[in-house]
């Protein structure tokens, strides 16, 4: 019970910071002159790096969306990481890519590059290389580009057209300090897309996806916003993050030995800049949105979440010497300990509570009032946090504008405490055993592709 109170107290504290920050951001955005970014000829160039492995179902939609973004100076670099399906063929055919015969003047720190293609009429590059993993593919794009900023996204993701303008803002307001910014990840399942842009935002009919929708709202709208507010953000989602390219190259790029390369990179960035006694900022912005496909089967979701948790443990172990050290400021004293005790150990204690408390109550070894208090903490506070996130979304950015969808989300916010959260905690236990056994596998993600709007006349 004490641990549950600490965990939920931490979440409530982050929620207060998040609400304050979002309110300020909303007021600021309402006063920004329309079109100011489009007319700014001094915007920094951005390279959008898209690692792709067997993504033939979604890659064309993703690239089409990227090529229609509202930003004046950017290029799209797709890095095919040894796909065994038709990813390369679809890209070459759809965008009429032409192979570059001349050797590229820079040796890329990645697995061998087979071919490089370029589109004749658009800023689209395809690097076809041997398989080396997502981090290796990201490094290929990072060291290939000459743009000052690079945006890392997943191949199964679609960036909203104005999101690039929004996410670059910290690099304009604090150009010498900002090294990384992250945006919000929204669930694409159930959303219909037209020419790479969301046409109709609706909830998926899948119960599992609906639970994830509540989870994503809480994690991004409250969790990361709150962490950013207290300067303790150590995760920028691999689905949508913008970085200073030279700074990331200084630390050697992504760690190819990590299975959650996005978190490990940000932690290493913090440590590098603190050790160099350099003023810097790593921020999260709730307004820029990328849409991504999430698992619709329990087995695929389990593989994904076990990998995420193993990666969390791996990153914390790699950077354990920074945990609790005053020399690393808020990162060492707040961010890393929070992830150790709340996101790491907290999940395991939560799983233990889900198993032991009902068992002790059934055999009569637990006081009835303690059991009621446990239910209140585990169910009530969790539902309150999710409800705050849902209403916050409705009152600000309104991606879900159908009252029926909002009502469904509120229902799932209550139901998840009885089903989804206990399952997730037990999966974390399984992931812990896998990590201790040295498992670094990624697992296979099944793609269904993005939905197109249906013709009502059919």
Describe this structure in words.
- The protein is built from 14 helices and twelve strands.
- By secondary structure, the chain is an alpha/beta fold.
- A ten-stranded mixed sheet has the order 3-4-5-2-1-6-11-8-12-7, sandwiched between helices. It has a two-stranded antiparallel sheet with strand order 9-10.
- It starts with a helix and ends in a 22-residue tail after the last helix.
- Residues 454-458 have low confidence and may be disordered.
What integer value in Å does the Rg equal?
Answer: 22 Å
General shape:
globular
What do the pLDDT scores average to? Answer: 86
For the termini, the CA-CA separation is: 56 Å
Count of distinct strands: 12
In N-to-C order, the SSE pattern is HEHEHEEEHEEHHEEEHEHHEHHHHH
What structural class do helix, strand and pairing data support? Answer: alpha/beta
Taking pLDDT < 50 over at least 5 consecutive residues as the criterion, the unreliable ranges are 454-458
Helix coverage percent:
40-55%
Biggest sheet, spatial arrangement of strands: 3-4-5-2-1-6-11-8-12-7
What fraction strand? 15-25%
Tally of separate helices: 14
The major β-sheet equals: 10 strands, mixed
């Amino acid at each position: 019970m004490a641990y549950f109170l600490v965990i939920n107290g931490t979440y409530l504290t982050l929620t207060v910071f998040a609400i304050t920050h979002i309110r300020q951001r909303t007021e600021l955005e309402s006063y920004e002159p329309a079109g100011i970014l489009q007319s700014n000829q001094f915007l920094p160039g951005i390279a959008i790096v898209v690692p792709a492995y067997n993504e033939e179902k979604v890659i064309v939609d993703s690239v089409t969306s990227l090529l229609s973004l509202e930003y004046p100076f950017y290029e799209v670099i797709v890095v095919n990481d040894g796909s065994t399906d038709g990813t390369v063929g679809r890209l070459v055919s759809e965008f009429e890519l032409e192979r570059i015969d001349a050797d590229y003047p820079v040796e890329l720190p990645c697995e061998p590059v087979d071919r490089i293609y370029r589109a004749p009429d658009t800023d689209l590059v395809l690097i076809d290389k041997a398989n080396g993993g997502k981090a290796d593919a990201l490094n290929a794009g990072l060291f290939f580009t000459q743009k000052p900023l690079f945006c890392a996204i997943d191949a199964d993701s679609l960036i909203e057209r104005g999101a690039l303008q929004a996410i670059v803002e910290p690099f304009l307001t604090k150009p010498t300090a900002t090294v990384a910014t992250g945006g919000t990840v929204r669930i694409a399942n159930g959303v219909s897309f037209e020419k790479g842009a969301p046409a109709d935002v609706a909830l998926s009919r899948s119960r599992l996806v609906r639970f994830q929708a509540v989870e994503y709202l809480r994690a991004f709208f409250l969790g990361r916003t709150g962490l950013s507010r207290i300067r303790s953000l150590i995760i920028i989602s691999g689905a949508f993050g913008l970085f200073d390219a030279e700074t990331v190259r200084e630390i050697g790029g992504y760690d190819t030995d990590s299975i959650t390369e996005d978190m490990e990179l940000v932690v290493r960035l913090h440590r590098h800049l603190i050790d160099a006694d350099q003023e810097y900022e790593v921020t999260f912005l709730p307004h820029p949105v990328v849409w991504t496909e999430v698992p619709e089967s329990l087995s695929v979701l389990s593989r994904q979440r076990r990998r995420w948790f193993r990666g969390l443990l791996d990153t914390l172990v790699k950077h354990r010497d920074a945990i609790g050290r005053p020399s690393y400021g808020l990162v060492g004293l707040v961010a890393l300990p929070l992830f150790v005790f709340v996101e790491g150990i907290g999940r395991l204690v939560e799983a233990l509570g889900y198993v032991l408390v009902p068992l002790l109550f059934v055999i009569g070894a637990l006081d009835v009032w303690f059991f009621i208090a446990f239910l209140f903490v585990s169910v009530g506070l969790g539902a309150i946090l999710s409800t705050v996130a849902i209403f916050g979304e409705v009152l600000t950015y309104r991606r879900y504008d159908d009252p029926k969808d909002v009502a469904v989300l509120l229902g799932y916010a209550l139901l998840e405490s009885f089903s989804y959260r206990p399952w997730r905690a037990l999966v974390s236990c399984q992931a812990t055993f896998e990590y201790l056994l040295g498992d670094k596998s990624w697992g296979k993600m099944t793609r269904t592709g993005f939905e197109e709007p249906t013709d009502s006349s059919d």
